[in-house]
């Protein structure tokens, strides 16, 4: 079993919080704002999600919208993570659900999920579900952040040989008392 380290620069390293946003950019045509962000090294583009209306948005590295891929309903998307081979995992906060979708350069409407994982535990709020996703330490690891009530990190496993996500979510970390909410997740695979 590996160890994970949580960094809270605003608590221990105040100089690291003294950054300024260099560029602010309006993204025309996007209603409700973007949530989640993932890099697809195969296409050289970014992907994000919107929750109302539910869609996947592809952007270039300057933040210009290349396309909007609408979904077939109101799914409260909060996060997206690229798994490779045109496969993406999307989190649906309100539904406590992870879904795997195949999205390629010809996709114009979000296809049905090739796999769905629902974790319906500790439901204390409709607005406190899966808020962040990140590829984890191992090749097949996917970290999932539950926003709050209870706030926690979970881990699931996926295989490059199939378009699926296993249903073996487990608790991985003890979280510090001062952490009140998780709104996103990134795993540094380099350090």
CATH H level: which superfamily?
A: YVTN repeat-like/Quinoprotein amine dehydrogenase
Task: Tell me the structural class.
Answer: mainly beta
What's the count of strands? 12
Strand proportion, as a percent range, falls in: 35-45%
H/E element sequence: HEEEEEEEEEEEE
Question: In the CATH hierarchy, what is the class?
Answer: Mainly Beta
CATH-level-2 architecture? 7 Propeller
Sheet with most strands: 4 strands, antiparallel
Basic shape: globular
CATH level 3 topology: Methylamine Dehydrogenase, Chain H
Low-confidence stretches: 1-16, 160-172
What is the count of helical runs?
1
Total domain units: 1
Q: What is the residue-averaged pLDDT?
A: 73
InterPro entries: YjiK/CarP
Subcellular location: Cell membrane
Keywords: Cell membrane, Membrane
Membrane topology: Single-pass membrane protein
How would you describe this protein?
The protein has one helix and twelve strands, in the order H-E-E-E-E-E-E-E-E-E-E-E-E. The chain has 191 residues and is mainly beta. The chain has a single domain (34-171), classed as 7 Propeller (Methylamine Dehydrogenase, Chain H), CATH 2.130.10. Strands 1-2-3-4 form a four-stranded antiparallel β-sheet, with no helix packed on it. Strands 5-6-7-8 form a four-stranded antiparallel β-sheet, with no helix packed on it. A hairpin with a 5-residue loop joins strand 3 and strand 4.
